[in-house]
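Quick illustration, no need to memorize.
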Amino acid sequence: MIDLSAIAHNTRVLAAHSRGVVMAVVKADGFGHGAVQVARTALAHGATWLGAASTPETLELREAGITAPILAWMHLPNEDVTELLRRDVDVSAASPAHLAGIAACAEKAGIAGAVHLKVDTGLRRNGASATGWPHLLESAAELERQGLVRVRGVWSHLVHPDNPRHACVAQQADAFERAVEAARGNGLRPELLHLANSAAALAAPSTHYDLVRAGLGLYGIEPVRGERFGLRPAMTLRGRVIMSRRVDKGSGVSYGHEYVAERPTTLALVPLGFADGLPFGASRSAEIWVGGARRRVAGRIAMDQCVVDTGPEQVGIGEDAVVFGPGDNGEPTAAEWADWAGTIPHEILTGVGPRVPRRHLHAESAAAVPKDTRTRVVVLFGGPGGEHEVSCASAAGIVGNLDRSHYTVQPVRITRAREWVPGPLDFPEGAYTAADLTDVTPSRGMGAGDSLRAVLPHLASADAVVPALHGPFGEDGTVQGLLEAANVTYVGNGVSASTIAMDKDATKRILNSVGLPVADWALLRGMDSTLSEADRLRLGLPVFVKPARAGSSIGVTRVEAWEDLDAAVESAHSWDTKVLVEEAIHSREIDIAVLEHPDGRLEAGPPLEIAVRGGQPFFDYEAKYEDKATSFAIPAQLDDRVATELQRMAVAVFEALNCSGLIRVDFFLRDGSRPVVNEVNTFPGFTAASQYPRIWAAAGLSYERLLDTLLRTAIARTSSLSAARDPR
């Protein structure tokens, strides 16, 4: 992930310290960050020039439509740089041979080539030496007289890039000024003199001259050894744990068994290796942030994977594994990886392989823009419950289908550890997966309380929040209560309806009280697993055993024989202290969606029938979310009288539970004709393939229009409540 707001911040810091203009050095694909994206960001936040090395990477900037001045400095003496000159790119020359090649290309193009003459002031790497400099100046003066080149700049490199206060720097500055005087003595009038790198830009103002070249500092690595200037690292390299296993003390790990477990421990496999940027040389000392803590790399780093020792903690599959990042929350940094590998941060950043996808979090534009009048929407997703992945998938559908001409969208993820992680403020429109949203809301290692305090301003500033959360800690009133306390407008059901509908026992009792039929049941409280003989006779076999407050499909067991009851109850108790034992109704299963419109009108959608195939005994979690053989019929083939009664009852459920915005009511048809309420979902699954959006699509209401209706209803409800509280 590349945080372009960090690039913007670093550009501003460098520009504030610099006496000259700032050149953003974007060679090597912007130090691995994406040259075009970095260039645009830096230019919007204080940079004036761009620096690149090779001809192809320079032309890539022009092809992207970037018109800012660019200096390219790495080419052969006889290399064809005609296209660079035609595209108004300045080129560097360090010898008469280089100048001659540039002049030949300039003659072919019919333009004078703009050149920066490079002088060696002590680095002994590139640039004309003290003895070669006079010859270079003579050639440049002659070619200027012929109209083939124009000397725009003179430049050099510092010997100590991370120590701008080294005595050598003053010596190099003296040599540089003598070289400039010699150029002027040959009749040349360079307008841009540049010597300073990032470190010198921050800490050696005497080296600034007309332009400073910001390389490493631009990307957030503090360039002055032992000093900090508030730069923010822009790159975070992360993967996900794809396997986790327990091993015994003495177990050897990875090639050669150079790492041996000193105790019984857990090993997590991360699919990143030296082909992705993890240097092999760091194998013996590197650490990766997994499960909210630094974990030692266990054994050799391989080409495309490495093993992490997570100690006694079992790390879940899919857990974030941060190789390096800003370091704000304790994760390793690129500078630390450089130390572990015995190299420099430049190599760590540029070594991230091309198969690692770059995701750019965009910075705000520095230019003044008209006030954005679009509705600001935050989409909450994730959570610690058993339906975390489903919530992420629902959010991906919502984020991808909100019309950006009307809405700005910010995803905010709640991790399994209850960390609140804000994503980009204005997330672009597009087709997204759950993994895409997780990638742009990476864990920062913050605790639940600290992260919530940090994210509250995002929630409070939103015009509406969509809590795309399923099951406990989201659909049960927990988050709704928080939003109510913060006076935040949100889509869907309030605290009471959410709390009651999550509790299957409470829902049955209320619906029974208003004459709505429900399946018969018995309640087991605490850790009680004893079902009375009377209850067994009344319910009969088979029965369903389910947690009362764990979501629609989590922890549900179908019991065919009473000797299996205890195990089923024990399984349900692992999710909740309240457990239902419910009669099994052999019937058709029908879903009805209810939608509240902004004017308060309630509408029930066409009936949807669920057909479970593939050997599933009932519509459990696997059948609902994973079994491709499960099918839906919309509208269900029902007698008109039955269909009308189902819709009437669904609206009656909505009113009985004091619902808001939306619900999906799941029914059984006892004997194929008598509706029985099975359960109520206050925020049902919301992918494009989920039942609720499918029902409304069949009714002629597109996913996009459905979201628009829900948001307008939430905002209208808030407006009417405000008016009622303040009749003025």
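Residues 267 and 348 are 25 Å apart (CA to CA).
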